[in-house]
Amino acid sequence: MLERVAAVNVGLSSFADALRVQGADAIDVDWRPPSGGDPETVALLERAWGAHGERIDAANAAALTALEGARPHVVAVAPAGEAIPGFAGEMLLHSGPPIAWERVCEPQRRALVAACLLEGWAADRDEAARRLAAGEIALRSGNELGHVGPMCGACSPSMPVWVVEDPAAGVRAYSTINEGPGRTLWFGVGDDEALARARFLRDRAGPLLARLLVRTGPIDVFDLAAQGLHMGDELHMRSQATTNLLWRRLLPAFAAEGGEDVAAALTANHLFFLNIVMAAAKCASLAADAPGSSLVTLIARNGTDMGIQLAGLPGRWFTAPAAPVQDALLREGFAPADAALDIGDSAVLECIGLGGMAVAAAPAVAAFFGGGAADAVARSQLMGEICAARSQRFTVPALGPGGSPVGIDARLVVELGVAPQITTGVLHEARDAGQIGAGIAHQPLAPFRAALAELVDAL
Amino acid sequence: MLERVAAVNVGLSSFADALRVQGADAIDVDWRPPSGGDPETVALLERAWGAHGERIDAANAAALTALEGARPHVVAVAPAGEAIPGFAGEMLLHSGPPIAWERVCEPQRRALVAACLLEGWAADRDEAARRLAAGEIALRSGNELGHVGPMCGACSPSMPVWVVEDPAAGVRAYSTINEGPGRTLWFGVGDDEALARARFLRDRAGPLLARLLVRTGPIDVFDLAAQGLHMGDELHMRSQATTNLLWRRLLPAFAAEGGEDVAAALTANHLFFLNIVMAAAKCASLAADAPGSSLVTLIARNGTDMGIQLAGLPGRWFTAPAAPVQDALLREGFAPADAALDIGDSAVLECIGLGGMAVAAAPAVAAFFGGGAADAVARSQLMGEICAARSQRFTVPALGPGGSPVGIDARLVVELGVAPQITTGVLHEARDAGQIGAGIAHQPLAPFRAALAELVDAL
Hints:
By secondary structure, chain A is α+β, with helices and mostly antiparallel strands.
């Protein structure tokens, strides 16, 4: 049932030959690319696999080595404004690619307005919205400062963030403390209850977590994640076992420092580890910059646009309108028309071999979409078709000896017309109902094609 | 690949018919029972499936309902002498069936001698051994007082025990706090280091755990175990994820009570949950007593003898010499001749659908014996052939919609000649080297046959 597939060849045998020369597996499939009728894309793919193939392959190999070699550690918890270089003054971070206030989607607006109140930059929500619209409060894509946030991804300077560092690569990344279920900023709720939670995290949880980390010393994030993959987590929709590995690690420090209220609040959150592993993934993706590489190191959405970045063109966004979340299961009382578009930075996990790539590790996540263990394996295998390799460190028993697919190759995405599938939550667009469901966001193909074209042109 | 097998029919179609009437699945296999040449066993099986079949089936159904319906909760931690009725005076408990001192195996002797020192019943090890040999210190099988202990299973009155209760059935069971890896009594080491650990558990960990439980209230053991089965544990050789679920639950109480030293010591022990789930399994097995039932509710070994009990003949032991642990992986420097025989009460887990029954949930355990995820499934399926049902509450994604095999039927064991396989540790016989490996203990068939004969005779 299991096959180790590094690439799927469609049509031109030279493509598969090029792969086989690199030692990668290639199989032929009964399939014709959409580019069958598009000479421009065929020409682009011929350049990407042919004339520039060797150069790109070498760059991808370097990027993969860096991705797989990164060992990000949580080293501290600190207020975002102190921890994140360049995060100064009246500025807010958000998930996804850069965006102007007038185009920001409603859930993200509600979160950002609430963040202004948390900081005391406005007396009420109307004033906050006015100041944001006037540009008096700056908006930055968190990704540009090394910050990643799930869903709305709002971050303001006083919010505590996990500081995650890969000492070998000399990179750092950051993420807020996951707020948990219910009425929270990350779910696009900015009411007083959500603000109270944000204040609790800022005033109680953040300082305590900082002290706990001083006691434990740096924590190897991917070491815990790799164990979690053998305990039913895929680390995106489900990080329950990995979160518990963290609690085990922090337990003696909690016993020493106290903080029953913080412990009770945080242990009620099964996704507590999500933001930590996202920051670690961002670290690895930053470490993987490699000129000429066609590997996708970033996929981020802000509910209006989605954007990707390639390891070969670091910092350069390729965007398209954010997709609706498909195959969504919505809570009772909500309709597809209520749903906001795909949002959040969490897809950075899929760029390093976790989440949708590793869903074979998490039958419970597949079950959410009505499938069993075999469906979970099939989903991982489909993602393996657009990935350059199988991970050495993220192994999954159900995938056999090969690890989780890692290294999304824009060439394979364009050639096969298979976009990364992101399992994600669904927020209410118009009002602050929070998370109303979950589903799969099929990412648009155009940015992958545009990125590949620019990469090939630059070579 | 997966088949739901409740029973395997061999030869006489009336056997399968009797099962099908009960709504159980039955398949025919190309196999002849060892009883082919033994008219007595054939006659026994004909009575057990034929004349008494309906009566036994009904009793088994009742026993299964009780086994599956039991909801044991950890309700307290207290000194064994206070918690366990009948545990009074200078008395020690041990694992396995009852045994006289002169026949106690060396590892268990070392543990029991150390327990005497812990209690202050002897000035040194020689005096302790002399008093035990003279019968001045009484020896009881823990199982007869509701206590189960892994490996040597030594329990003395001042040792703290988990008190596990099934309120509906009105039964209680007990187990010591797991001592963890290294030089410890349960591994047959009774030196000063092992004694220091026992004192730490008695004086520091026990009282603290008792206070934590007052804060948390009763904890539903099988609720955690059922989650753990979806997180890579089979709950016998591996209970790591389930242990972490417990830490998550205890974290706020630890933060309130303090106890960094205890937290550090206990979180270093991946098998911490083992004794808790064993006590819960003992509770369920006590709840399952049902006159006429051929289900095996107890399998216990003391390193000299192994013994089983049937739900239909509660309290009645059927014994045989303990088996060597086969297919064992030994630590470097140790040889099969060093190995003690099969020991411990932990096989009570296999009687309720965990451990070897559920090994499909734990590819890591299968990997220990050189197999992959498919081998783990095959091991569970083999055990399914001697079980009366699939568990409703202990589900395993890799086994598909059916749960873990539950309810070992002595009739199927005798008929198929397939004994329960217990994955277990291996102790050093002659000296206090502790755990020197792990392997599979194939239980002898004779006690199952003797028990079935007595059951049928009694009907």
